[in-house]
Amino acid sequence: MSLAEVLDRVRGLNCPLVELTGGEPLLQPASPELLKRLCDAGHEVLLETSGAHDIFPIDPRVVRIVDVKCPSSGETARMLWSNLDRLRQGDEVKFVVADRADYDFARGVISRYDLAGRCTVLVGPVAGRLAGHELAEWILADRLPVRLNLQLHKILWPGKDRGV
What we know:
alpha/beta; six-stranded parallel sheet; 6 strands; 33% helix
């Protein structure tokens, strides 16, 4: 699908908010241009990325949501840590934690990069591995300045990984 076709499709939806996500959108070479054109068309635009690819070329009007991969994911080594230095007010960083080790890792990253002082920080449990109430208790005990982020698609459509 060409950029023009994507833009026409979005225009037909008459939706003011557009989020580019799914897999890793920055693997698509046309993503930065698509994001820019969506902004030019007057949309509020969000990009959700794994953090493994440079967010510097992204139009500054785009809200960048960077997913920091915790150790249990096996993907931590792919993280481009300089992306965290590029986050600003209005952007978000997200941690999905499976256990106490992941939580401690996230807490360390939040502190090291002063993330809570620069952007919104979301911390959520891996569905089926960590209970939301347990994570909430850790956050409250540490007075961690984050938002608890539950994976609503896992709650509303359990067992369905795609198309939600």
